[in-house]
Design goal:
globular, alpha/beta, 14% strand, six-stranded parallel sheet
């Protein structure tokens, strides 16, 4: 692979922080990648400001050369929502992984959106994830994209409200994380919070990035 593609950006989900991504960072740095992490305060920042910060962050990364993006959970929604700006500034990633990231409105978010603690913790991001029209309004990435989702339902609020009658990772259902049943996607046996450090997910991401000609 061209050395200019040895950059990876990890775009975190709501509540995720850089210090939580040690295994992910070590895994790829040991394989010669430079890894940058983007996180944000969903509880206190307007969604437009988060998107502006991400656009600027990725533009800075792109000035150093080509990069790949791993967009985890709501991070994938953020990445998709700024795709037009990235394309205009020629700062879009070479390849993308949407990692346990909802493509459509989340059942769990719709269930919790009026709860005060949910609104306090997730801010505008949580309301966006619960809105069918808003989630359907943002396009899928127009660059090569891999979809990885979890199938371990035992840790997370989803199982409490919806049970285990269909595959999910405790927060995001499988049918929310892939565009259609015909989409080639990789399931991993992990609950939502542990997918970024899951060995199967890490190997799948490495294989996807290494396939670049």
């Amino acid at each position: 692979m061209n050395s200019s593609s040895r950059q990876i950006v990890f775009i975190d989900g709501v509540g995720g922080k850089r210090y939580m991504r040690g295994k992910f960072v070590r895994y790829f740095e040991q394989r010669g990648y430079s890894v940058s992490c983007f996180d944000y305060r969903a509880s206190s920042l307007p969604l437009d400001e988060i998107k502006k910060n991400l656009t600027e962050f990725l533009s800075t990364v792109a000035r150093a050369g080509e990069y790949h993006a791993v967009a985890y959970s709501f991070g994938g929604v953020l990445l998709r929502s700024i795709s037009t700006q990235l394309s205009m500034h020629q700062s879009q990633p070479k390849r993308v992984v949407l990692l346990a990231s909802p493509i459509r409105a989340m059942r769990l978010a719709r269930r919790l959106r009026d709860w005060k603690i949910y609104r306090a913790l997730t801010g505008e991001c949580g309301q966006f994830a619960a809105n069918d029209d808003l989630m359907n309004s943002i396009p899928l990435p127009d660059m090569p994209t891999a979809y990885i989702y979890g199938t371990w339902p035992w840790l997370g609020a989803f199982g409490f409200f919806f049970g285990v009658g269909f595959p999910h990772d405790g927060m995001v259902a499988a049918d929310e994380a892939i565009p259609s049943s015909q989409t080639q996607a990789t399931p991993v046996p992990a609950s939502h919070a542990f997918i970024p450090s899951n060995d199967d997910a890490l190997r799948a991401m490495e294989k996807w990035f290494s396939a670049v000609a």
